[in-house]
């Protein structure tokens, strides 16, 4: 069946002498694998559209259970800046990698597609990359069924005097329940406000937020530790981000 869809390239890998296989995320079909024959060749009409992060119109032939075969494609947004800037590329790669690895074949939704599209655009527009990443991580937690409790104490349900975040217990803790996790992460008012906001926030409405360094540091340890405990995937792109942070690149 010939399919015509909009999509974002999540992953692009060489196949054989001149071909590429792309992992394409679409609103209608979810995540699909598509073979782009001849795309490795410099003069190929598919060379540009199969690059990572490219958002475009794709026409491909696909039968159920089989990889698609690309017929034609037109670029809507090339996202050159995301590939040319090291920091942008690393953070955009993390969004794409999460989407690619956490979704099964033909799995996804129009909402998640719009969140990814908006996230890539937000990074390219110079919005806070760490906040964009954390917001998208929260969408991934929801997709996986591991959305943390952030609007009340995960232990007793108390909504006031929230002081800590417990990745292992699955959410925030009040001062009275803090003793139940001795390694829970202390969070200030700013970090707690954002942890509450992330599950409800639409990436398309993200503005040019200004977040204190202390708040961002708390958010980083909360979200990364939660991801490691509940998702348990070793992310290549996040490892690269952490190496840049370590060596202050």
Automatic annotation (TrEMBL):
Record keywords: DNA damage, DNA recombination, DNA repair
Pfam families with a match to the protein in the record: RecO_C, RecO_N
UniProt KW DNA repair keyword: yes
Protein name per its UniProtKB record: DNA repair protein RecO
NCBIfam families linked: reco
Reported function: Involved in DNA repair and RecF pathway recombination.
Family: Belongs to the RecO family.
Domain (DNA replication/recombination mediator RecO N-terminal) ranges: 4-78
Gene3D superfamilies: Nucleic acid-binding proteins, Recombination protein O, C-terminal domain
């Amino acid at each position: 069946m010939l399919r015509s869809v909009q999509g974002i390239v999540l992953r692009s890998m060489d196949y054989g002498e001149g071909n590429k296989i792309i992992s394409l995320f679409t609103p209608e079909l979810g995540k699909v694998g598509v073979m782009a024959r001849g795309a490795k060749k410099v003069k190929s009409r598919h060379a540009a559209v199969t690059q990572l992060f490219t958002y475009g119109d794709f026409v491909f032939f696909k039968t159920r259970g089989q990889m698609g075969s690309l017929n034609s494609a037109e670029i809507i947004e090339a996202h050159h800046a995301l590939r040319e800037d090291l920091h942008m590329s690393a953070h955009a790669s993390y969004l794409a990698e999460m989407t690619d690895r956490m979704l099964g074949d033909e799995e996804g939704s129009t909402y998640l597609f719009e969140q990814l599209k908006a996230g890539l655009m937000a990074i390219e527009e110079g919005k806070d990359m760490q906040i964009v990443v954390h917001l998208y991580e929260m969408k991934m937690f929801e997709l996986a069924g591991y959305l943390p409790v952030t609007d009340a104490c995960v232990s007793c349900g108390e909504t006031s005097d929230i002081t800590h975040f417990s990745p292992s217990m699955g959410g925030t803790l009040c001062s009275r329940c803090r003793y139940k996790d001795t390694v829970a992460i202390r969070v200030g008012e700013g970090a707690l406000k954002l942890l509450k906001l992330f599950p409800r926030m639409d990436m398309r409405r993200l503005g040019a937020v200004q977040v204190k360094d202390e708040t961002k540091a708390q958010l980083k340890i909360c979200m990364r530790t939660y991801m490691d405990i509940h998702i348990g995937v070793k992310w290549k792109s996040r490892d690269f981000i952490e190496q840049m942070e370590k060596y202050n690149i």
